[in-house]
Specification:
single chain; mainly alpha; 13 helices
Length: 266
């Protein structure tokens, strides 16, 4: 559904042309990290943990983005950012272990879902970094559509192997509403909006807007799913957000020069 929506938007805007061959390796990478791996990790992770836990852990994405920027863009990673990094991962540890000091991050299977969601946050940061150069060449709508197509083709063999179409008759009306929301809202418009933002702003600034996601997830999980909220989970989530604010709070001169360079290129 997301792929069909994006291609329909391109057709309406008369921009439905095949990307150059040189862009396909990056598009395939974007489809692999951003669609195939990400959806697999989150779908299986959410079967094993709660939406509340997933929401708090997703708040770590800005920290991963800052680490990747330091590794690949040579941005400075000072003491304040290191403190934020440690604080963020302390909060994540509290969420995953439920605050039990005798528990371990690798206390499988109880932490398996949380660890899959945690892996998806690193994967999403990689996806955001991998796609930036391609955005400048193709534009957000075109790059997202063809990356989504590549990811869909990667998922298709698994769907065929499991004969996924046999599950359709059992889906309720409410279930179809959820599928439509996920396909059109999250997979189509969600990906498009994310890359449209990355086309105009540097990765760290876009990632910092994810501060809101844990709070929205918490409210939705309680209101729609009736999930319980433990005080230790909220405490861990607050530490995650505190760590992220430290990492993203001070932008170095190199950050600003990278942002200006990106705006000139686009």
């Amino acid at each position: 559904m997301g792929t069909a929506l994006l291609f329909a938007l391109l057709a309406v805007r008369r921009r439905l042309t095949a990307p150059p061959r040189s862009a396909w390796p990056a598009l395939v990478s974007m489809g692999f990290f951003g669609v195939f791996v990400h959806q697999m990790l989150q779908a299986h992770g959410l079967e094993l943990t709660t939406a509340v836990h997933a929401g708090w852990l997703i708040g770590l994405i800005p920290i991963w983005s800052a680490l990747l920027a330091a590794a690949f863009l040579r941005e400075r990673f000072g003491l304040r950012k290191i403190a934020g990094l440690l604080l963020g991962f302390l909060g994540a540890a509290l969420v995953v272990t439920r605050g039990d000091p005798s528990a371990s991050l690798l206390s499988l299977p109880s932490t398996r879902g949380d660890l899959l969601i945690l892996a998806s946050t690193l994967n999403w940061a990689i996806y955001s970094v991998v796609g930036r150069g391609t955005l400048a060449r193709l534009g957000s709508a075109r790059a997202t559509a063809f990356a989504m197509l590549a990811g869909w083709l990667m998922l298709l063999p698994f769907f065929a192997f499991r004969a996924g179409w046999n599950e359709y008759p059992a889906i309720s009306a409410r279930g179809w509403g959820a599928v439509l929301f996920l396909g059109i809202g999250c997979s189509g418009l969600g990906y498009l909006f994310w890359y449209a933002a990355l086309e105009q702003l540097e990765t760290s600034r876009v990632a910092s807007l994810l501060y809101l996601e844990p709070l929205v997830t918490l409210a939705a999980a309680v209101a729609l799913l009736g999930e319980p909220v433990q005080a230790i989970t909220v405490a861990g989530g607050v530490l995650v957000l505190g760590g992220v604010s430290l990492v993203q709070g001070v932008r170095s001169p190199s950050d600003k020069s990278i942002g200006r360079k990106w705006q000139v290129e686009t």
